[in-house]
Structures are given as structure tokens and as C-alpha cells.
Design brief:
four-stranded parallel beta sheet, homodimer, about 425 residues, 13 strands, seven-stranded mixed beta sheet, alpha/beta
Chain lengths: ~425, ~425
Amino acid sequence: MGTLQGNAVVAQSGGPTAVINASACGVIEEALKQAGVIRSIFGANNGILGIVQEDLFDVGIEDRDTIAMLRCTPSSAIGSCRYKLGDPAKDPEKYQRLLDVFAAHDIRYFFYIGGNDSMDTADKVNQLAKQQGYELRVMGVAKTIDNDLVATDHCPGFGSVAKFLATCVMEAGRDTEAMYTFDPVTITEAMGRNTGWIAASTGMARRSPDEAPNLIYIPEIPFSEERFLEDVREVHRRLGRVFVVVSEGVKNEKGQYVAAQAEVDSFGHRQLGGVADYLRQLVTRETGLKARYNKLDTCQRNGIHFASKTDSDEAYECGRHAVLQALAGVTGKMVSLRRTSDDPYACETGLSNLSEVANGVKYLPREFMDVAGTHISEAMRTYVRPLLRGEVPIRVGADGLPTFLRFQRKPVARKLPPFVGKK
Amino acid sequence: MGTLQGNAVVAQSGGPTAVINASACGVIEEALKQAGVIRSIFGANNGILGIVQEDLFDVGIEDRDTIAMLRCTPSSAIGSCRYKLGDPAKDPEKYQRLLDVFAAHDIRYFFYIGGNDSMDTADKVNQLAKQQGYELRVMGVAKTIDNDLVATDHCPGFGSVAKFLATCVMEAGRDTEAMYTFDPVTITEAMGRNTGWIAASTGMARRSPDEAPNLIYIPEIPFSEERFLEDVREVHRRLGRVFVVVSEGVKNEKGQYVAAQAEVDSFGHRQLGGVADYLRQLVTRETGLKARYNKLDTCQRNGIHFASKTDSDEAYECGRHAVLQALAGVTGKMVSLRRTSDDPYACETGLSNLSEVANGVKYLPREFMDVAGTHISEAMRTYVRPLLRGEVPIRVGADGLPTFLRFQRKPVARKLPPFVGKK
């Protein structure tokens, strides 16, 4: 496998994170260094949708400072989406369309920053290109706040949401400590559809026994309303206050989501909301204790103003290595993270097969929780501690608020007719 | 009025803020400097409740570094409450109890950091002491995230909640920009029972026309569901996405709270929650647009990790000046802030009568909003801009999370029988 000259496209997919742009920065800065091989680098507006719709922009015209600012800009600056490509056997037009767009623009490098659905898409595109003899190098870059990808020690995006949400729990926990005579119960909802990594990570906020959070509930451990109410009553008897963190995806013994309002998104995933509000009402009804709730929702995954530098630096390295590996001839792989030591923390990039990552889910190990299953164990602390370290340096304007980048988004001229395949 | 020797008590009341401890720090550090006059300084556990219950602790035994850390610790480190003292004519026991506790501990200085209900209590205690010939100096220190106190340019606590929430709106706004093809509408709920200062301040996040927030709704402007839905539809037609900030206290044309779930707290105030969730459901039902909501609730008022240094420094100065003024013989006043220039920003401390502050409410002037009443005007920008500047330096532990103080809380020996007046 020799030098493959051509253009590159970088796309971001799924829910944004505080550091998904750091990965894009790693891809773009490294690609720009390789200008003899990678002629142009394009961004795909709105993730994979931008490729299907041939809606690309030229990243190369942006000045270097704008590109550097990707590291201090949250969310997906290139654009994202939730757009599920179906089974290639049943829905071949979309995959063919991706290859048609790549061929029309001589795109030979596809860098896809996303979670397991995205790795599935990338894997299928890679296979189709091979079948058709179109020389293409497809590299995935791990991204998800949920931390639920297999074949990687942890996922870029997780450390930052964990640091920010744990900090908010520390702060709001002090509020409950101060106001317990009036507001004794606070319930904070954490993201996490299927796994409890984010909710559990807020356990780091508790440095001494009676601090917030007092109780943590995760999807991996079946949720019993009766036991929850007993837990709340017990902590309240002991401390006069209760601070709970609950994962949006907690399920009862029958595997049903506790959150009442459950809608289904286009991936067939349930979009959850309202479990904290539901439990707040349950607590007040059943125990008579006044309760309130915090639901940071999309604020939690974009908190660049207090993001983890460790996380951001790793996200950048994953992007950079995707380019280096692709140039070396690798395709069909995701750049993953391999931890070599907890203390002092050391971690290096590795490669995993896209197909392995595609449909696996890494659940929180039971031993990362305590015996009761309502707080974290020392094993979880050892795992998560290094991922929260350091703060991402941000830029602050004269108005005291952060300054983020805006791309010029110079469109790449279309060469194909609009896509008319089924939606 | 000469030198009045004796002890001092400092208390914090009502909802915590990110900088209420900075005011306590100003009081305590200045009081400790005046050790020849102020012999001991006590903290009241859980605000005014701690005085009624004679539940005091000795702040003087804390080391100087612990006291300095008040400036980087959110919420009310001394303890707070919502505990309404009624009309002295109808409920004289409680006021008498306060004076009894003061007399039992030779307390001659009472520093009360709080909002208008607290200033009302302080005013009444001050009058009663005068009537009974008990020499006491009562100083209020303005505190409220709501920024609704009269007789002060702005309130310590407001700048920090405004900076943090506006930042979260910027960040979550980028999320909506990236994900609009899937999640087109985001509604963020801001605190503010009666006034729109906090919700309106998030307008600072919009530096260019199409950025978040697109629409802001405040209690001062009657809320029409029909007009709201029209606004949402119009922005969505134009941009394909809508980011809304709504104050928890928005009311319809009849003056009724839009939030369905309204409970009444012990001050007779309504405890609101759920307006964002309510509007999210309304949007989806009436427009078919998918909508989600963020409700930071107690997280917003405790965000020391990205608090305003301007706000924190002013909070400290207000506390310090309360002590200096009391020592100079002043009583029955609240330390207020007087702005002398917008640009360059200059502000000094002043004094307002407690009775004036006690029951007034400063609403957001109509001219601080635009003509449509759904975003801020240049006048609001000029007002709020300087209040967000600078970041409070915090301490971060080896685990990447902030470090806050804990008082030892050495109890002051009780000298009176327990209070048995009506609750």
C-alpha cells in the first residue's frame, strides 16, 4: 500500500461533546501538514447527511487560528445529525450514494468521528468500497459522552462530561446542604440511555462520606421504586437531606424505562426525559419530603468552560492518529485508547476493528459500583480519576463570556444531481 | 456614637448564590481585623433559624486559609434557610427571641446577607432593639441572584448566575446548531420567580443575530401561548432551529403562572418548576417540532467554577463595608452598589435604608427588552456587560474537581432554654 493521493472528508455524527471538535482539529491540522498527499480537506455539513446530500465545505480556506479554536469550541462545529443508514442489503442506494459522492470529489480519506452507529456506517462504507474496487481509507475516531464503546479503555467526550457534571453536583450539593431545612431532596438527571458511566462518574464529587451525591442509580442495575424510596428515607433520617443522581435510562425489573415520557428516535433508540421530575413527584407523594430536580440535558455535554484537558488532548491525538494511520495504509479501523497505567496515568492510541466497535455496548462493570449498587467503588474511582484532570484553556471575550469559532463554510461546488433515494 | 464593644453574628438567608460566601468572607475578615472591638464572630447555622434556635458556631477558630476559601466556595457555607418571621405585632415571640439570643451572647453586631425578606427581618429586629434600648447595629448585605432589590444598582449574586447561565446557553446553543436536523427546538428554563433579570441576561450569549438564544420570555411581559408558538414557528422557518430561554415565573395575561405545577413556599411565594417541560410539550403538540429542555435549577446559582470575578469582588466589598459602617455607628442600613460609570465600569458601595429595600421589587425595565419583547436591547447589554467580567479563581484538587471549604463548626455553648414559640 503506497501513497494514496486525493481529497479527505471529515464528518461528525450523533450527540455533540465538549471535545469532538478537538478530534476534528487533530484530523484537520494533521491533514493540512500532509498537503502533498491530501490535497483538500472537506467538512460534511450535518454529518453523514452532508455526504449523502453532497453538502460539503472547504476547511482548507479557514485560517489556522480558526482551526486551532476548534479545541476551545464545544459541540460539533462541522455539523452533526442522527441519520441512520439501514442494512446495505435492504437500502443499498444510500451507501452507493456515499461512494458516488466520494468518487465525484476524488475523496480517498474518510474520517468519521462518532459512536457505535457511526462506526457501523463507516464499516459498511469501507466494505462497499473494497467490493467495488474504489480505493478509500476509512478511519473512525471514537466519540461519545456515554463511554459505552467496546474495544477502547474510554471514549473522548466522557472525561469532560464527567468533570463538568460532577462539578455541578458538588456545587448543587452544597446548595442542598445549606437549604436542607426547606429543600431536603434534590434529584439530578444524568445523560446515559443504556449505560451508567456518566451518572456513576458524579460519584467523584463525594470526597467524604456525607457529601453529594448520596445515591446514584444507573441503567445496569434494575430500579425498584420501593427500594429507591427506602434509600431516600434512610439517607434523610441520617442527614436530613438527600442528593440523588439518576441516569435518564434507568429501567425497572421488567426492563422498562422508569421515565414515563419515552419517545423513539430514528435509530430506534428511546429518547428519554423526565425521570428526575418523575422521581421528584414520587418522593413528595410517598414520603412527604419536598423535592426539586436539575436536568442539565444538552448543557452537560457541551461544557467546554470546565472541560477536562486530559480528555481534550486525547480527543485531539485520536484525530491526529486517524490521519497518520490512514496515510500509512490502514483502513476499516477506529482509533481507540489503551491505558497502560492508572497512576501515574498513561494512555496511548491503538486501533480497533470498526466491525467490532459497531454494535457492541460496554456496560459499567458491577464491581465499579458498591455492594448496595447506589454509589461507586474504589475501582471506579481509579478508572475515572485521571480522566477528569486539567482544564481546557478557553478564550473569553471582553463581555466575560467564552468565544467560539465560526467556520466560513465555503461550499464545495456540487457535481452530482440531488439524492432522491428513500429517506 | 462611640465604640461599641461586643460580639458579632453573621447569617446567610434564602437561596444560595455563587458569591454569598464572598460577602461572608468580607464580613469575617474585616471583623477579625477589628478584634479590639468585635471580640468574637459567630456564624448562625441555617440562617435566622440558627439565631432563633441559639445554634451558633465560632468562626474565629477557623484558620485564615479556610476563611479565605469562602471566596471560592459556592452556596451558603454558614447555612441558610427560608424561615419567615411574621408581623411583629402578631408574632412578637420570634423577634423577642432574636434579641434574647443577642443579649445572652452580648451580640452587638448583626450582619445579615440576604434578599428583601431578610432585609425586612433585619429592619424589624433593628427597630425592636431600639425600642428596648438594646444597643445593636444591624447591617444588611444585598444578596440575590434575582437582582430584584430596589435601592441598589445590582445585587451580588446576579453577575455570576448571569455569566454561568449565558455560557451554558452559548454552549447548548451550539448543540442545537449542530443537531437541528434532529433536535430543532431547545428550551432552557431560567430562575426568576417575579423578575426576568436572569432570563434576560442570557441574551448576552447572542453576539450575532442568529445565535442562541433566539427568544427570551420574562415575567414582566405577559405570556401568550399563541404568540409564543408564532414566534417559535417564525424562527424555525427562518433558521431551521429555535433556542428559547424562559423564566420560571412567566405569567399569562390573567397574571397566572404558566407553569402548571405551582406550590407555595413558606413565604407565600410560589415555588415554580416545569415551565420549560410544559412549553416543550406544547411546542411538540402544536407544531409537530421535536423539542427538548434544559433546567439547571440549583446548579445555575452555585456555578463558582465559572463565576464572575467582578461579582465576587463586589460581594466581598459589600461584606467588608457592612463591618466598617457598623463600627462607625451606622445601623438599619443595607450596603448597596452605586454604579458611577458603565464604560469604563466603576461602582462603589453605598447605604440604603433597610425599610426601603424590605418590600420593594425591582422589575426589569421594559426598555431593557427589544420592541417585540423577546430579546434584550442595547440598554440591557450596557447594564449587564460589566457584571460578567473576570473569572473567580478556584482551587482544583488532584482529581480535577474543585475544592471547597468545610467549617469545623465549633458550637457556641447555649445559654438559653430551647425556643418554644409557635413555628
